[in-house]
Automatic annotation (TrEMBL), chain A:
<dbReference type="Pfam" id="PF04077">
    <property type="entry name" value="DsrH"/>
</dbReference>
<dbReference type="InterPro" id="IPR027396">
    <property type="entry name" value="DsrEFH-like"/>
</dbReference>
<dbReference type="GO" id="GO:0002143">
    <property type="term" value="P:tRNA wobble position uridine thiolation"/>
</dbReference>
<dbReference type="InterPro" id="IPR007215">
    <property type="entry name" value="Sulphur_relay_TusB/DsrH"/>
</dbReference>
<protein>
    <submittedName>
        <fullName>tRNA 2-thiouridine synthesizing protein B</fullName>
    </submittedName>
</protein>
TrEMBL record, chain B:
<protein>
    <submittedName>
        <fullName>tRNA 2-thiouridine synthesizing protein C</fullName>
    </submittedName>
</protein>
<dbReference type="Pfam" id="PF02635">
    <property type="entry name" value="DsrE"/>
</dbReference>
<dbReference type="InterPro" id="IPR027396">
    <property type="entry name" value="DsrEFH-like"/>
</dbReference>
<dbReference type="InterPro" id="IPR003787">
    <property type="entry name" value="Sulphur_relay_DsrE/F-like"/>
</dbReference>
<comment type="similarity">
    <text>Belongs to the DsrF/TusC family.</text>
</comment>
Automatic annotation (TrEMBL), chain C:
<feature type="active site" description="Cysteine persulfide intermediate">
    <location>
        <position position="110"/>
    </location>
</feature>
<keyword id="KW-0963">Cytoplasm</keyword>
<dbReference type="GO" id="GO:0016740">
    <property type="term" value="F:transferase activity"/>
</dbReference>
<dbReference type="GO" id="GO:0097163">
    <property type="term" value="F:sulfur carrier activity"/>
</dbReference>
<keyword id="KW-0808">Transferase</keyword>
TrEMBL record, chain D:
<dbReference type="InterPro" id="IPR027396">
    <property type="entry name" value="DsrEFH-like"/>
</dbReference>
<protein>
    <submittedName>
        <fullName>tRNA 2-thiouridine synthesizing protein D</fullName>
    </submittedName>
</protein>
<dbReference type="GO" id="GO:0002143">
    <property type="term" value="P:tRNA wobble position uridine thiolation"/>
</dbReference>
<dbReference type="GO" id="GO:0016783">
    <property type="term" value="F:sulfurtransferase activity"/>
</dbReference>
<dbReference type="InterPro" id="IPR003787">
    <property type="entry name" value="Sulphur_relay_DsrE/F-like"/>
</dbReference>
Amino acid sequence: MSTLHTINKSPSDNTLWQSCLAALLPGDALLMIENAAYAAAQPSVMTQLQEYDIDIYLLSADVDARGLSGKLYTNANIIDDQQFVTLACQHTKVVSWF
Amino acid sequence: MQSKSILLILSHAPYGDTRAKEALDLALTAAAFGQDVSLLFTQDALYLLLKSQQPQAIEQKNLANICSALPMYDIDKIYIENNTSQTKHITAEQLILPGVFVNHNQIALMIRDHDVVLRF
Amino acid sequence: MRHITIADKDLTLDDEGYLLDLTDWSEAVAEYLSNEEQIQLTDAHWEIIHVIRDFYRQYELSPAMRPLVKAVGITLGDDKGKSIYLMKLFPQSPAKQAAKLAGLPKPTNCL
Amino acid sequence: MIFSILIYGSAHNSQSVHTAYRFAKSLLAAGHTLHRVFFYGESVYTASALCAPPRDEQDIHQLWKSLAETHQLDLVVCIAAALKRGVIDQAEAQRHEKPAFNTHAPYELSGLGQLSEAAIISDRLVTFGA
């Protein structure tokens, strides 16, 4: 019983991020897609995320597109599209924050 | 047809864009198909429930009226994000429908406990 | 689209026979449309037509079957608030036919 | 595993329709089933065959069309959302007496009930939002 959350906006969308973070439960996973990839380049956001007992993922396509691969402040897992599908299978549902 | 529990989380205000209206359409359809639908009003979606809406001049349907039809579609599980109603200074008497006020913890558990969760 | 004249008034129906302009509705229009649907309007039909028009006024929606049954039950009593009762009056599809005769848009929450 | 995809993001003003496309390709490659793709909201513009992006830019209509044709996908476009935005097939154009139509197979206009059904049938319903 765990949820894969996806979020697709940069942390500048504060309301969206607060709602998403409030919904996380231990054992959930958070996949930051599209502009949410920018979160991984912001130390304050990543520090905040460390308080949650969750796994954090990024899509390599989004990271590369945005030129972020050398700028990541975290050991968030960078995965490919195939692994996105695997994650969706491993969790009982996928909830999208957009 | 088997049934799944569906939680629809609304987060957008009426009228400014079509997101709230399209989410309500989805709720009504799923309920008309016999699905077990729960609705959670968060953030600006709380404004959907304000009784005092009068959208005639902007030529839109009154979304409060449509919300008031939810019980007729057997959507009786209506939840309102506690924090939202406090920050917006909206009281239960100003709403077209009664709802159960829930906090962030309860929302996290609701997301866990439903089969399908869609957020608009 | 189809143009018809009822009581010296020109009206337009859409492809499926629903009234295009809701404000054109009158009881004479309902009589005309009921002929097209091969329904002989009785008091029992009129009761339902009034319930569905009230539903639309209140909620701005043409009801799907379940809410229609519920509304009929609330207004006219539990013995009439049953799909089997409505099916007898509007054999094709109660939600669609009653909406049509009442001058309302086709319910969107159908397939 | 049986997947369905709900796309709600704008066809031309968000990345989401393409992210959904990549997800669809990957799940098919992994041997899963894609029961249905449902286009709702602004994503219905994906179904317009009249989109003509510059030849060296992404053509999202064509990408989904090719994938659907290769894998026999069920691409359902919400009929209410589509018609009000002017995305219309031949049958609906006739019904509403419109002068032209702009969508056809593999895109198919149908009701929100198709999304409801997909939610029940599928093990996972994944949304790609605005």
